[in-house]
Amino acid sequence: SQQGEEDPQALSIQEGENATMNCSYKTSINNLQWYRQNSGRGLVHLILIRSNEREKHSGRLRVTLDTSKKSSSLLITASRAADTASYFCATSRAAGNKLTFGGGTRVLVKP
Amino acid sequence: DTEVTQTPKHLVMGMTNKKSLKCEQHMGHRAMYWYKQKAKKPPELMFVYSYEKLSINESVPSRFSPECPNSSLLNLHLHALQPEDSALYLCASSQDEGGRGNQPQHFGDGTRLSIL
């Protein structure tokens, strides 16, 4: 079963614009991870943020985590056509190597 | 190219066939995973192996039988599948921190399975 929900389900932007997507989850977590999946490919890990962290950056990616609201956001700045993909958040709880994925956001970046 | 290799990339099988999906990684990871992904849906965890031992089975039907012959290989044996089992099957691996799940997972590109 899905731990979280992502919002929006789909996003269409022009190249150069920023893309923001949100993830909400239901239970306490150990960490939250974001993954990208290009069409027909496997998932690629983007960033991991631990439950005691509030913000993390990696290149053009910025992730925030608000454990009081049980939510996270992923911001992609200066988007490129190559950023077109589905983006999934995934939560890890304290016990076990188990990731539970949110429903995903499909991002289309138009050139 | 991904560091987790899955074969075959595509598989079409009848409901009475027996086939196997294979996954290989050489990153020294000791946790390996099988996921099932339907179109436009997130991956759903099926099995987790930790140090070659099955640690999580998410109530998967017995027509799916996982096997971890060594630390680099993971198999998924298929028998008597149903049409609703058609999906993308993803393998992943990660370092194992004693089950604390603090490591990113590395995914293969999957096997697209079609059941006739």
Can you walk me through this structure?
The complex is a heterodimer of chains A (111) and B (116). The model of chain A has no long low-confidence stretch (mean pLDDT 93). With 111 residues, chain A is mainly beta. Chain A has no helices and eleven strands. In chain A, the strands form two sheets. In chain A, strands 2, 4, 5, 9, 10 and 11 form a six-stranded mixed beta sheet that branches. Chain A has a five-stranded antiparallel beta sheet with strand order 1-3-8-7-6, with no helix packed on it. In chain A, 0% of the residues lie in helices and 58% in strands. In chain A, strand 6 (55-58) and strand 7 form a beta hairpin. Chain B is an all-beta fold. Chain B is 0% helix and 55% strand. Chain B contains no helices and eleven strands. In chain B, the strands form two sheets. In chain B, strands 2, 4, 5, 6, 9, 10 and 11 form a seven-stranded mixed beta sheet that branches. Chain B has a four-stranded antiparallel beta sheet with strand order 1-3-8-7, with no helix packed on it. In chain B, strand 7 (64-70) and strand 8 form a beta hairpin. Chain B is globular, with a radius of gyration of 13 Å. The model of chain B has no long low-confidence stretch (mean pLDDT 93). Chain A binds chain B through residues 2, 30-31, 33, 35, 40-45, 48, 50, 88, 92-104, 106, and chain B through 2, 4, 31, 33, 40-45, 48, 50, 55-56, 90, 92, 94, 96, 99-110.
